[in-house]
Specification:
Blueprint (H helix, E strand, L loop, with lengths): L8 E4 L9 E4 L4 H6 L9 E6 L2 E6 L6
Antiparallel strand pairs: 1-2, 3-4
Length: about 60
């Protein structure tokens, strides 16, 4: 397992957001994107929230 420390970037939300709103972002290394088999054309992920952690997985589209 690879472990990398990152800091979250906070910035003021604009547009129709309330004056105290903010947005959060985090940069993820390209090696992690490659491990998930993501690309600029196929970049959809699913975030799962569990107590004390967030899990990022590649989104797989179900055929109907």
């Amino acid at each position: 397992m690879t472990e990398i420390k990152r800091k979250i970037m906070f910035s003021k939300a604009y547009g129709n957001a309330s004056k105290n709103s903010y947005t959060c972002k985090m940069a993820i290394p390209s090696a992690m994107m490659e491990a998930l088999n993501l690309s600029q054309d196929d970049r959809e992920v699913v975030l799962k929230i569990e107590p004390g952690k967030v899990i990022i997985e590649k989104a797989y589209h179900r055929e109907e």
